[in-house]
Amino acid sequence: MKSETKIGIALSGGGARGIAHLGVLKALEEIGIKPSFVSGTSAGAIVGSLYCSGFGPDEILNIIIKTNYFKFLRPAISWTGILKMDTMEQLYRVHLPENSFERLQIPLTVAATELRRGKVVYFSEGELIRPIMASTCIPGMFDPIQIDGRFYIDGGVLNNLPVEPLEGRCDYIIGVNCNHLQEDHNISNIKSLIERTVIMSMNYNVYSRKNKCDFFIEPEGLAQYGVFDLRKAKDIFFAGYESTKRFISYNEVLVKLGQQIQEEI
User: Fold this and answer.
1) Among 228, 213, 185, which Cα is nearest to 19's?
2) What's phi and psi for 172, nearest 5 deg?
3) Of 123, 141, 183, 245, which one is least surrounded by beta carbons within 10 A?
4) Nearest by Cα to 17 from 245, 241, 230
5) Which of 36, 53, 143, 154 is catalytic?
6) DSSP bridge partners of 81
7) Structure confidence by residue, pLDDT tens digits, 225-258
8) Could you give the angle at which helices 43-52 and 57-66 cross, rounded to 10 degrees?
9) How many CB atoms lie under 10 A from the CB of residue 17?
10) pLDDT one-digit tens code per residue, 179-210
11) CA-to-CA distance for 100 and 133, rounded, in angstroms?
């Protein structure tokens, strides 16, 4: 039985820092809050797709730890990116074999940026995997992803906290941002330059949407982790979990909301 109170959760991008979303979701589940709708950009799209397909936060963490994502990437002979991510589709099919938004247990919306029109596009039906790949396509790092003749890059370029698909559908919206920016950062190579530039642009459009959220969770301490720092997966997960537990302790309304949802089920 589903709750009458509809909760929407918007998950930001942030590369490996997006693993913190799993800790956030686990802490929310512990007080009885599970989303009715999820929207995500980039790392948030990956976490959202696995979570909405039925995997629990701990299960997804284990998948990330056991998977060598970098072996699925190959050099791009192109001026638009230094890596191709087409072979990532094989990896996603292992965990999302039905490859369909409609087959998810929780409705999901994925944000990507359409290059030629310069607009955010929200995917919520049909094929699932290529929209996820488009949403995670860091500009300059990866070749754009083509879907139905159009080219897409990371959704966070224009919307790194996609709350808009949740508006009008939910009683409460919880926004989660894991895209922290270090205040003092040395640029040592092209990878760190791209990483720094992308994070700066994405942070701006997150905070412009903060007021659209009833609750805004921003796990502490994530700035110390790099966008590609998958080796620190457990630490990042724990940072998200502990920060959310603290957030909950300061927000009695959120605790009561969890209790209300459990009473409705």
Assistant:
1) 228
2) -140, 140
3) 183
4) 230
5) 154
6) 140
7) 877 788 899 999 999 999 999 999 999 999 999 9
8) 120
9) 27
10) 876 665 566 677 667 666 766 766 778 888 99
11) 14
Chain position carrying tokens 């989660």: 176
Catalytic residue among 12, 42, 49, 243: 42
Measured CA to CA, the distance from residue 260 to residue 265 in angstroms comes to 9
Greatest alpha-carbon pair distance for the chain in Å reads: 57
The amino acid sitting at 256 is K
Asked if residues 161 and 38 have their Cβ atoms less than 8 Å apart, the reply is no
**In three state form, how does the secondary structure of 39-76 look?**
EEECHHHHHHHHHHCCCCHHHHHHHHHHCCHHHHCEEC
Question: Would you list the DSSP string of 237-257?
Answer: HHHHHHHHHHHHHT-HHHHHH
Which residue carries 């109170």 as its tokens? 5
Q: Give bridge partners of residue 53 from the DSSP assignment.
A: none
Please name the residues in contact with 149: beta carbons below 8 A apart, sequence gap of 6 or more.
Answer: none
Q: For CA atoms 10, 63, 224, 184, give the dihedral sign.
A: negative
User: Model-level pTM?
Assistant: 0.90
Give the Cα separation of 43 and 103 in Å (integer).
Answer: 20
Per cent of the chain over pLDDT 70 is 85
> Both tokens of residue 260?
């209300």
42 in catalytic set = yes
Within the chain, strands assigned E span 7-11, 37-41, 74-75, 81-84, 108-114, 119-123, 140-142, 145-147, 150-154, 172-176, 215-217
> Residues 10, 13, 15, 18: what is their CA dihedral angle, to the nearest 10 degrees?
-20
Please spell the DSSP secondary structure of 89-107, one letter per residue: HHHHHHH-TT-BGGG-SS-
